[in-house]
User: Which sequence fits this backbone?
């Protein structure tokens, strides 16, 4: 056997051994990898099993409870109106001057308060602005047989009827003198009995919206569905205003606005979101009227209420007429049934009434037509002072909590 032949055999044998060694190494190494993977998988499985056992042992997290209408009101009041009430309690300072001072010192209003508190202070301190909060027409002197009576008249609380009653007590025809029979300067006692009628804030707001925003003849020609730039782009102010404003939108904008206004709930909800940009007197809280009812309602001689319940509303009207000996005038203006039962203090609406017919309580019939849970919750926040202030004694209607419960469905 030649040397080259032996060398070739040795080389082949060496290559065979090397190949076997590499195969064995790879096999063992692969076995180690699979072994570790198996351990990892078993470990993960064990962890998952322990996790599932732990989840079974732990109680499920409690569901967040829905806030009641009362909770919404109380929380909103603390975050908004409380600062205003605390700042405007000086007996020698009018509400107007207090709001003016707050607006002048706007940076002093804590930033934790929502933005609309600042716009409320701004518009409430503008004595000539669109809010009309301090208009002299809110205070009326009723010359009753029992003596002068100072009456606090609120927009959307039968203000048309109270104006007419004022005219009749002054011996004037309401239809011939216009909407207002303003008081002339006269010598009055230093202290007068005071009276006011209140209305459910949500119902009052809806009444203002249906009247001032849903009716085109009012929305487009009266500065009440504010901001007019949004909701009445064709609006032109009354001729007696110092400056005329006219907004002429593009045709596309007008078309979009018309389509949006046709959807009642959408329009109502959007208006609630935007009306604090410029507060109007028809939508301001009742607690701010007449130099701040939140400051002085405890001194009122008579506080009546109007609501969707016609019987209760008219019961207060009867009591009011009897108290100040003006029952015939009250009955004529509000068209009360002359055959009411005095012992029960209950009256019914006269079918022949023209002024008050279908006026009291009409907004309450439209609640489901306009309100959504979102709209109800937002308005509870914006009007929280009316429900939170104990002096006004305004209960939250039962339907509000029923509507808020729909959010869970």
Assistant:
């Amino acid at each position: 056997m030649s040397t080259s032949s032996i060398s070739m055999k040795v080389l082949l044998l060496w290559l065979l051994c090397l190949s076997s060694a590499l195969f064995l190494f790879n096999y063992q190494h692969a076995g180690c990898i699979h072994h570790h993977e198996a351990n990892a998988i078993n470990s993960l499985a064990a962890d998952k099993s322990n996790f599932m056992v732990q989840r079974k042992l732990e109680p499920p997290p409690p569901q967040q409870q829905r806030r009641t209408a009362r909770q919404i009101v109380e929380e909103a009041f603390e975050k908004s109106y409380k600062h205003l009430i605390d700042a405007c309690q000086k007996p020698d300072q009018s509400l107007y001057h207090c709001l003016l001072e707050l607006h002048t010192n706007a940076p002093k209003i804590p930033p934790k308060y929502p933005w609309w508190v600042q716009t409320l202070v701004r518009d409430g301190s503008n004595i000539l602005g669109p809010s009309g909060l301090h208009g002299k027409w809110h205070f009326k002197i009723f010359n009753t047989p029992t003596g002068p009576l100072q009456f606090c008249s609120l927009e959307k609380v039968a203000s048309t009827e109270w104006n007419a009653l004022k005219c009749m007590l002054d011996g004037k025809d309401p239809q011939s003198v216009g909407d207002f029979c303003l008081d002339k300067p006269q010598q009055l006692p230093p202290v007068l009995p005071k009276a006011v009628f209140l209305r459910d804030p949500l119902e009052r707001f809806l009444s203002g919206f249906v009247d001032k925003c849903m009716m085109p003849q009012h929305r487009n020609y009266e500065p009440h569905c504010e901001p007019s730039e949004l909701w009445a782009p064709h609006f032109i102010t009354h001729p007696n205003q110092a400056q005329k404003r006219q907004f002429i939108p593009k045709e596309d904008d007008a078309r979009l606005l018309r389509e949006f206004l046709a959807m009642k709930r959408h329009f109502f909800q959007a208006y609630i979101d935007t009306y604090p940009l410029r507060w109007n007197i028809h939508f301001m809280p009742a607690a701010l009227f007449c130099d701040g009812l939140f400051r002085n309602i405890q001194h009122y001689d008579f506080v009546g209420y109007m609501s969707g319940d016609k019987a209760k509303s008219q019961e207060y009207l009867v009591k009011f007429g009897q108290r100040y000996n003006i029952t015939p005038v009250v009955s004529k203006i509000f068209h009360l049934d002359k055959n009411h039962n005095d012992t029960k203090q209950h009256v019914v609406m006269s079918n022949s009434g023209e002024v008050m017919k279908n006026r009291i309580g009409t907004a309450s019939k439209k609640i489901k037509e306009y309100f959504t849970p979102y709209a109800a919750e937002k308005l509870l926040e914006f009007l929280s002072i009316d429900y939170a202030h104990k002096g006004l004694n305004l209960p939250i209607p039962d339907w509000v909590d029923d509507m808020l419960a729909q959010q869970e469905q």
